[in-house]
Amino acid sequence: MARTAPSAPPKLGLRERKKIQTRRAIRGAAHRLFEEQGYDATPVDQIAEAADVSPSTVFRYFPTKEDIVLTDEYDPFVVAALRERPLDEPPVTSLRHALVGLMHQYAGDGREEMLTRLRLIRQVPALRARMGESLAGTGELLGEVLAERSGRAPDDFEVRVVVAAVLGALREALFFWFEDRRAEDGGAEDGGVEDGRLEDGRLEDGRLEDMEKHIDRALEVLARGLTL
Length: 228
What we know:
Blueprint: H1 14-37, H2 44-51, H3 55-61, H4 65-70, H5 75-83, H6 91-106, H7 111-123, H8 125-134, H9 136-150, H10 157-184, H11 205-223
Helix pairs in contact: 1-2, 5-6, 5-9, 6-11, 7-8, 9-10, 10-11
């Protein structure tokens, strides 16, 4: 059975749009400061001042400084894209198409922000350590939609295993990409950056495409049944 009448993603209300604007303002201010003076050297109160909000507002939207870098607003779009996949398609295949397709679709306007986030995650150990935890919310949403598509409960054991496998594959794809980039840069640990200051220059589009290919390849490994 295939989808024949795609449904549009639900429109966001004014309150939710304002929340997104505030999150983006905080994130944008943080990224500018991280680039100028380094991640570790940038306190939250300075980010709040640059974003013209209070420190308590920053923590209301981002419980930790790491969350400013690791969280985004893409989850609802991933869920909507997944719901549009054919119902008779294997779940990992559906996730593969939804995730990679969304990366291409939404990387346009947010490309610079995405590259900044990737550079920070690559260079700051604390961010890499928090990646798994930050994916927990995404995992819950993916579990809900996979359960909906398969007629199972969100806490069904097999649903949880599929979601955990996908999130693990995504994390390993990014780590592999980080290591590959480091090797091309001459093997220097995080490019020689010790304080989380962004490296000079931009990551070329080719490097972002390499990351997308690693993610697609990781999910392909899952889709074919973990054979080697």
